[in-house]
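Question (not urgent): is this output format expected?
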Amino acid sequence: MTDLGMTDLDEQRMRLILTLRQRGITDPAVLAAMEKTPREMFVERAFSGRAFEDTALPIACGQTISQPTVVAAMTRALELDAKCKVLEVGAGSGYHAAVMARLARRVYAIERHRALAQQARERIEALDLSNVVIRSGDGTRGWPEQAPFDRILVTAAAEDAPRRLVEQLRPGGIMVLPVGDSDDAQKLIKVVKTESGLSYTELGEVLFVPLVEGVPEDAPY
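Got this back:
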């Protein structure tokens, strides 16, 4: 414990929030959600000492937990509020779903790797976040029985906003996703579904794993 009664984890978490502020993340609701979500619970044990670094880290099944700055930027771009029903494609460790759960009404997250989905569910349950549902399956199909969604987050790179997911987005809704070749520069984009079509806004360069159709053999849809 420090002289102020703070633990080392508290100090590391505060330093991460300070880093996010310094890198342009100033939305108080997003910062509060990030501060309340213990990233150390969502990283592999071998990387627990790096949980509060502003960097992506490896997780199981060849995937990654995204850089906190990217998580914050994507969350801010979604413009979440307490009325939003959110679809996340690519739940990974469950970290981003946990952050969004503190800002949205309901989060439905899909992960194509069954082992990752199970681990994510266990972490979400440990945090008592009752407004998150995670299942394994083909995220490119979305979650049609729960559509339409107010917001859709895709955490894997596609060539464009996937048609099936756009169809599950409510008019006026927002989708945030990376687009581009996974071996080249990708752009993070914000897509707004309007009466006349889709409106695109570029938010910066990112690097994500590619969006893959189907599921591994160990994770039937």
